[in-house]
């Protein structure tokens, strides 16, 4: 079933676990604006003081590219990819599924609210051998680094394809931050 029929109008109704194992309630983000590694750090540095919260959500559903255990992800980022001592300045959640019957409820909600990326509405998984979930839906996240921007009210604002540069989200971030003030 591709549509979960969420009666929820806000992303703040969900929870997930941080890599530290602690529970993370999206309700703590009410009043803030949510949203490839170095660009996320740059956006965090520029806008965290103004209310931007960036959450990275590791997922192993795309070519098994995130095959580390949760406790290995930060070391992998630091020493492998992107490497060179990289440390995320933003929060990383535990690995979750974003597609299929085991998708995290937040992603089911986000995909229902924003069924496709605004910059690439015809985007689909390009190689069927990488589809490892069921059911497959038109609104599925197509690959790593697809991004969702959520407004300060918790309403999903815009979905961006993996090809859309993370740094180019800045204009939309500014718009939402200005609306919040």
Automatic annotation (TrEMBL):
Signal peptide boundaries: none
Keywords noted in UniProt: Oxidoreductase, Peroxidase, Selenocysteine
One Gene Ontology term from the biological process aspect of the record: glutathione metabolic process
InterPro entries: Glutathione_peroxidase, Thioredoxin-like_sf
Alphabetized Gene3D superfamilies for the sequence: Glutaredoxin
Pfam families: GSHPx (PF00255)
GO CC annotation terms, alphabetical: cytosol; mitochondrion
Subunit structure: Homotetramer. Interacts with MIEN1.
Recorded family membership: Belongs to the glutathione peroxidase family.
Protein name per the record: Glutathione peroxidase
Species of provenance: Anabas testudineus (Climbing perch)
């Amino acid at each position: 079933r591709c549509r979960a029929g969420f009666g929820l109008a806000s992303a703040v109704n969900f929870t997930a676990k941080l890599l530290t194992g602690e529970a993370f309630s999206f309700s703590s983000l009410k009043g803030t604006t949510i949203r490839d590694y170095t660009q996320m750090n740059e956006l965090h540095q520029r806008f965290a003081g103004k209310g931007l919260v960036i959450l990275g959500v590791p997922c192993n559903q795309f070519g098994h590219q995130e095959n580390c255990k949760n406790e290995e992800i930060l070391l992998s980022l630091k020493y492998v990819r992107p490497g060179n001592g990289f440390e995320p300045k933003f929060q990383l959640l535990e690995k979750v599924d974003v597609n299929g019957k085991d998708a995290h409820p937040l992603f089911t909600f986000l995909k229902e609210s924003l069924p496709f990326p605004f910059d690439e509405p015809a985007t689909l998984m390009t190689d069927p051998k990488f589809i490892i979930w069921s059911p497959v839906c038109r609104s599925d996240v197509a690959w790593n680094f697809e991004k969702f921007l959520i407004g300060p009210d918790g309403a999903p604002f815009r979905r961006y394809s993996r090809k859309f540069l993370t740094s180019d989200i800045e204009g939309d971030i500014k718009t939402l931050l200005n609306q919040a003030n």
